[in-house]
Design brief:
This protein is globular. It has helices spanning 11-22, 55-69, 119-122, 131-134, 150-159, 222-229, 264-287; strands at 2-7, 27-31, 72-75, 80-83, 89-92, 97-105, 127-128, 142-146, 165-169, 182-184, 188-193, 197-202, 207-209, 212-215, 233-234, 237-238, 251-253. The protein starts with a strand and ends with a helix. By secondary structure, the chain is of the alpha/beta class. The model has no long low-confidence stretch (mean pLDDT 93). The longest helix is centred in the last third of the chain and has 24 residues, at 264-287. Helix 1 packs parallel to helix 2 (55-69) and helix 1 runs parallel beside helix 7. It is 27% helix and 25% strand.
Amino acid sequence: MYDIIIIGAGPAGISASLYAKRANKSVLVLYHGESQLEKAHKIDNYYGFADGISGADLYSVGIAQAKNLGVDVVNEEALGVSMNADMNYEVSTKNNKYVGQALILSTGSKKVRPNIEGVDEYEGRGISYCAICDGFFYRKKRVAVLGNEDYAVSEAGELENIAGSLVILTNGLPAPATDKYEVNTKRIKEIAGEAKLGRIIFEDGSELELDGLFVAQGVAGGVDFAKKLGILTEGDKISVKEDMSTNLPGIFSCGDVTGGLLQVSKAVYEGAEAGLSAVKYVKNKNKEK
C-alpha cells in the first residue's frame, strides 16, 4: 500500500509527488496517454529556461526527476477509483489494483464531448458521461457506450448488469480489445429523438434505437473519477479548497482539472500545495490509529 497515489504525470502531479516523496512518503504516480504539455511546441514564459523549452522535454524531465527521487511512476491507465472498508483508496487499472491512504487527481483538462450532431441537445436527456452515476436510470433499457479504448470497456462493465441491452459504439474507430461486449464500428451521423434521445443514425443510413448513450472517449479524467466518488464539481472542473482538498477526506486535486489559469506555473504551485496537504492528511490519519 502507498501513502499517496497520484493520477497524472504533468507539472501538477509531478510537483505533488516531489513534495510528498521529500516528506518521506511512499508515492505512486499513474499516467497514460499524451499530456497536453507534450503538445506545446515551446514554453518561454516559465522560470529557469533562458531559451525556452519544449513541452515534451519539460514533461519527460519532470518524470525523470520524480523517478530519480524514488517515486514509482507507472504508465498504466487508471480505470476506476473506490474507497475500501479501511477508508483507503483503491485505483484499478486493466491488470492491477493499487491502494493508497490519500489520492491526488491531477489529470489535466479533459474535453470528452464528441463532435456529433445532437450531442448538445440530448445531454442530460439520454446522454451521460458517468455510467456509475446514471446507470440506475437505465435499468433493463437499451444503452450504448461511445468510445473505443479500455475506459469504454470499463464503463460497459458498470452497465452490463443493469441495462437490458448494451453495445459499444466506436464511431468509425478501431474496436477495443474485448470480446465480452457487442461492438459497432460504424461512423455516426447524428443523434436523434423527440423529448429525449431515441436513436443513433449512422452515415450508411442505418439506425440504432437507444434509451441512453454513455460517453467514454479516450481515457478517464479527473472529473470522471470525481463524479463517481461524489466529489463536488463545477462543470468540467473539480472544486477544491485553498489547500487543494476536495469535499472527500484524503482526496486532493490540482492543475488544469481545477480550472483557472491553465499555465505550468499555476500547476506546479497547486501540485506542491496538494502534495504537502496529502502528507499532512496521511500523518494525521496514522496518528489516529
